[in-house]
Amino acid sequence: MVKVMHGVLLNVTKTTFASTTYTNISANEVKTINSTQWLSIHLYVVQAWKRIPILLCVETIRVLATFDNIFVLMVKACLDFSGLGLEELGAKIVGMGCDGSSVFQGG
Question: What are the residue ranges spanned by the domains of the chain?
């Protein structure tokens, strides 16, 4: 049942991503009490002048949480969940951003 629901959501996400003109991708990095770092990546699209939020993924960060590494994870998530190529993805992105103190430490 979960696999079926995941497949339906993935198809909806890909269709929404492919049909939108403007997107914004954001990420929120958090560290748990046991020092595990997590990254949630959100996609916001604009369709018919309405902003639609989509949670792309939540994953454990297994690399140093610098801006460069977070950026790579964000792009990978977008490619994995959009069904688009890199050039198509780049043509749709209006903005990308993330927060978390460690991302400002440099790359």
Answer: 2-101
Please report the pLDDT score of residue 99 as a whole number.
67
Identify the pLDDT of residue 102: 55
Low-confidence ranges of the chain (pLDDT < 50): 106-107
DSSP string, the chain: -HHHHHHHHHHHHHHHHHH-SEEEEEEEEEE-TTS-EEEEEEEEEEETTEEEEEEEEEEE--S---HHHHHHHHHHHHHHHH---HHHHHHHEEEEEEE-GGGGG--
Query: β-pairing, 37-47 with 93-99?
Result: unpaired
CB 89 within 8 A of CB 64: no
